[in-house]
Amino acid sequence: MKKEILVIGILVLFALTGTAFAKTVHSEANDLIHSGTGSWMMCREPLSVEEPANMDSANVTMGIVSMNDRDEISYASGKTWYVDDDGGPGIDFTKIQDAVNAASAGDTIIVKNGTYNEQVKLDKQLTIEGENRPLINAAGKPLYGILIDHTSGCVIRGFEVKPSTEVEVGIYLYYSHSNQIIDNIASNHRYGIAVVYSNDNIVNANVVYDNLGGIGVWYSTGTNISDNIAYDNYGSGGEDSGNIGINWANNNVIRHSLIF
């Protein structure tokens, strides 16, 4: 009973913290981040991958996009590409990024089991699915393992993202809306999964562990975080530590997740 009360209290605290900071103007929120005050678990958002282009960041920051106005999530329905690090008959590429570059919006990329020493950037609507848990090792690439950048309607499913040396973010959504991050494992990052300036995304059935921060949401609304497992995401501790954190964001949902 005490444990249930504690969990309910944590969820209420998420909601209150997100709503309060969603009303903070953009410049004030940035000051709060850099001073390390005012959030519950994680105070600084991940390093930016680039300057936002032609985006109304103030509206995204303040959560003005309504849950009722969200874009419908659409699924890829075009050509299917196959990736295998060993190559072979029927295989189109040995690198995931090469397949991404060749694909058109609406295509699907199937990645066979193996180790892929690369980082992957999506800038178009794609579904990328791993078979038998392929590993993405972005060691030496400091910002991300997988990045969805200014893009909507993507699906990332079935990967382990674990660099041999720490990377800033495992799976990074940046100014990207209505995407799905499903059934992935992320470890050995500053943040396992990060949602930044991105609305109406689904983060479902992932495992995040041994990161400094597990799943973090900043300046975003309508994120559905459900059925995830988050544990041992503390690193050396400090202001950026935590298993799941909602920071300066509102109308986000956390449910049915195991946190320990």
Description:
With 260 residues, the protein is of the alpha/beta class. The protein has four helices and 21 strands. It has one domain (2-259): Pectate Lyase C-like (3 Solenoid). The strands form three sheets. Strands 1-2-5-8-11-14-17-20 form an eight-stranded parallel β-sheet, with helices on one face. The longest helix has 21 residues, at 2-22. The two termini are 17 Å apart. The model is unreliable at 2-41 and 51-74 (pLDDT under 50).
> On the 0-100 scale, what is the average pLDDT?
78
The largest beta-sheet arranges its strands as 1-2-5-8-11-14-17-20
* Helical run tally: 4
Gross morphology? globular
| Radius of gyration using CA atoms only | 18 Å
Q: What is the number of strand segments? A: 21
Secondary structure class reads alpha/beta
Biggest sheet statistics: 8 strands, parallel
Q: What's this, in brief?
A:
With 260 residues, this protein is α/β, with parallel strands linked by helices.
Main attributes of the structure:
260 residues, 21 strands, 7-stranded parallel β-sheet, Pectate Lyase C-like
Topology readout:
Blueprint: H1 2-22, H2 26-35, H3 57-61, E1 80-83, H4 96-102, E2 108-111, E3 115-116, E4 120-122, E5 127-130, E6 135-136, E7 144-149, E8 155-157, E9 160-161, E10 167-174, E11 180-182, E12 185-187, E13 189-196, E14 202-204, E15 207-209, E16 213-218, E17 224-226, E18 229-231, E19 242-247, E20 253-255, E21 258-259
Parallel strand pairs: 1-2, 2-5, 3-6, 4-7, 5-8, 6-9, 7-10, 8-11, 9-12, 10-13, 11-14, 12-15, 13-16, 14-17, 15-18, 16-19, 17-20, 18-21
